[in-house]
Amino acid sequence: MQLSQIIRNKRLAAGLTQEELAQKVGVSAPAVSKWEKGTSYPDITLLPVLARNLGTDINKLLDFSSDLDPAALQDFFTKLTMTAQKDGWQAAVALVDQELRDYPSVSQLQMMAAPFLDTLKPQIPKDDWPPVQQRIIQLYKAGEQSSDLPQAQFAALGLFNFYLSEEQFDAAEKQLAALPSETVTAWALKPKLQLKRGQLTEAYVEGEKLLGSDYGALGQVLDLLTQVAIADHQLATAEEYVKVAKALDQAIHMNSPFVIDTELQIAKATKDAKRVVAVIRQFADNLDQPFPKVFQHLPQPKPRESPAAARKQFVQTTVLDPDLAFLKDTPEYNELLKQYAD
Question: Where is coiled-coil annotated (predicted)?
Answer without folding.
Answer: none
